[in-house]
Structures are given as C-alpha cells and as structure tokens.
Amino acid sequence: MNIGDAAARSGLSAKMIRYYEQVGLIVPASRTAAGYRDYTPRDVHMLRFIARARDLGFSIADITALLDLWRDEARRSADVKALAQARIEDMRRKIAQLQDMADTLETLVDSCAGDDRADCPILKELEAPDGERSHSYRYKQSGASSALRGRLPRDNLKQGQSIV
Question: Which domains does the chain have, with CATH numbers?
Fold first, then answer.
C-alpha cells in the first residue's frame, strides 16, 4: 500500500511517516518499480504502535526503546514498566510546572484593575529583570511558592483600596 493508505490506516500523516523514516524510528519502506513507498500490514501495525506511544507522550528515544523491547521476545516487562513510570513522572513534573504558571498568571491578573488606566501590574511584572520580579512560577518550582504570598502589591492592600 502507498504512503497515503498507510497514513490513513495508521492515523499518522504521510509527513510524520517520512519523518519517522528519516530519524530512523522505522526502516524505510520498500519501493515500487515506480519509486513509490510500499507499506505492508506489518508496517502499518508498527506505525499504529508508534502513534499510540506518541499519543501517550513518549519521546522518539523512548519509542525507539519501546520498539526494541516489543521486538525482543526475551524482554523483561520490568524494563517496559520503568520506561512508562519515567514518562508518568515527567508528565507530573510538567503538570506541576503548568499549574505553577497558571497560578502565577492568575495572581497577576487578579492584581490588574483592568480599567482605562495605562498602569498595568502584569506588564510591569513581565518587563522586570529577573531579580526584581515580585512573583515568578520559577520560584514555585523550588517549593518556595508559599514564601511568595504577600509579595505582590495587591496582597498588601486594604479592603476597597486600589493598586494604582
């Protein structure tokens, strides 16, 4: 089958299939007499495996290792599990970083009056040099998020008072 059919059956784009060939994730398909790629049902099965692994967040290097394990009938399931656990840990770190970023942005949005005035705490925070920022998600990554409470201008306002 040609690359378009393999793409349709695997759920990958033809461009991604060519990329996976280029980086060595899959062996380049055989060619027809006319020079077109010719994929087998086994190739499509492998492409589906790769697509599913990518959907689960595995890197190209991880997928290479998973493919090697998949092909190795003497593999240890512990090796597969270790790869999956490492992926979970990486995802949890990224989720925590994204949550910290969202929390910081939410705090900055809460500190902005959002009216007709030109003064904006969000822009001030974005333009501030690293050492002069009042709040940054990077600080939260080190576990110091609670120490930042009260450091934003809005945190020190009395009820009804405005930042600007």
Answer: 3-58 (1.10.1660.10), 88-156 (no CATH)
Structure confidence by residue, pLDDT tens digits, 79-105: 999 999 999 999 999 999 999 999 989
pTM score, two decimals?
0.68
pLDDT band at 22 (very low <50, low <70, confident <90, very high): very high
Can you spell out the DSSP letters for the chain? --HHHHHHHHT--HHHHHHHHHTTSSPPPEE-TTS-EE--HHHHHHHHHHHHHHHTT--HHHHHHHHHHHH-TT--HHHHHHHHHHHHHHHHHHHHHHHHHHHHHHHHHHH---SS-S--HHHHHHHS-GGG-S--HHHHHTT-GGGGTT-SGGGGPPTT----
